[in-house]
């Protein structure tokens, strides 16, 4: 029985020369849903009626509706017509008691693109016909299937054009990859050199495994080659762990000259390098990764959490050769078994269809908008940022200390990360701010404004102690 609700008098405005026409109609439909012209539950005009209004073939409108259905924008109801789908409900972002976002979380910002979001979900749905139940009811080989490894090769092709699939393994997230690597490379046999401010996840891993970390000085270009040479000579580390691009937390990126110097010193002293490339894909001015400069001694970890989706828990690890691949596969099997076949398949689908690159572009755009807000408000107070980085570093001036500043912000409902979480020795008076966890730019502005207000007060004025 035909639904009594009248069809929405929707008429897409198609730009002259748009081709193919059915895709243009689907794009306008997605845009009008995003703008609120069409809302969940609206019944679209019957296909023949819309074809007559637009003076086009019925088959063109039919293809447009099918494309919109594939993207998850609309749904057909037998005997009733085509309706705008209800949007998926959003889970609330991590927040504190006051409702302001916890800026201690270093997440890529959510982008506002309904059409792209719908295509991502549609890509997941397509997996039912391509792999089907095997993705959820079967184990797979350690290190990933041939298809998933090739997807990783394609993902890294802009920075590693000569990479072959036999040098790449698929891991269940970057943290898992790091755990497997330090095990496979024998990190317990000697100190591991790290940046003086290093990723907290690696510090935690080292503490868990009783691995000794020895700091290397850093500056605004990252690792200091002179100090690295001194550490190699005096401490004789077997491994260097570092983040050359958009370093966490300082946002520093090593220049090509600096990268070449670090690689040369590592070669001289027989040091193997674990290169954490969490943010490399986000850079719009990419430099050759360390693995491109020294493929024989660098293990390159390219996680998808920061540049694509934190939920996928997939990382691609590039190794020097087949022998290293076999050794690392054994460590992965012992530590974490296999990467989720479903997660790997989703990543491969998004990469193969070009959706992953669209997500990277959307994350970059939203990151730059948020970074501009942060720079406007906190730049005069010494905020350190870098293009395409959604974390930033805020040095503090006396009389503020990092502990007191973080505590006062916590009272105001804002979480930040003091330098203690990153420092191997002698923490600086500074905190890291995550710009991506806020659900909107407006909420980010509110949080940053609160931080600005606190910076402009003295600790005594803001104290609540009585």
Could you describe the 3D structure shown?
Residues 19-87 form the HTH gntR-type domain. Helix 11 (290-293) links the parallel strand 9 (272-276) and strand 10 (298-303). The protein has helices at 21-35, 47-54, 58-70, 114-126, 134-137, 146-155, 174-184, 200-208, 225-235, 256-269, 290-293, 322-335, 341-353, 355-378, 402-411, 441-455, 459-462, and strands at residues 74-77, 81-84, 168-171, 192-195, 213-216, 218-219, 222-223, 239-242, 272-276, 298-303, 315-318, 391-395, 417-418, 430-434. The chain is built from 17 helices and 14 strands. The longest helix is centred in the last third of the chain and has 24 residues, at 355-378. It is of the alpha/beta class and 466 residues long. The chain has three domains: 21-84, Orthogonal Bundle (Arc Repressor Mutant, subunit A); 132-353, Type I PLP-dependent aspartate aminotransferase-like (Major domain) (Aspartate Aminotransferase, domain 2); 356-462, Aspartate Aminotransferase, domain 1 (Alpha-Beta Complex). The radius of gyration is 25 Å and the shape is globular. Helix 2 (47-54) crosses helix 3, helix 9 (225-235) runs parallel beside helix 10 (256-269) and helix 14 (355-378) packs parallel to helix 16 (441-455).
Could you write a compact summary of the structure shown?
This protein is 41% helix and 12% strand. The protein has 466 residues and is an alpha/beta fold. The relative contact order is 0.13.
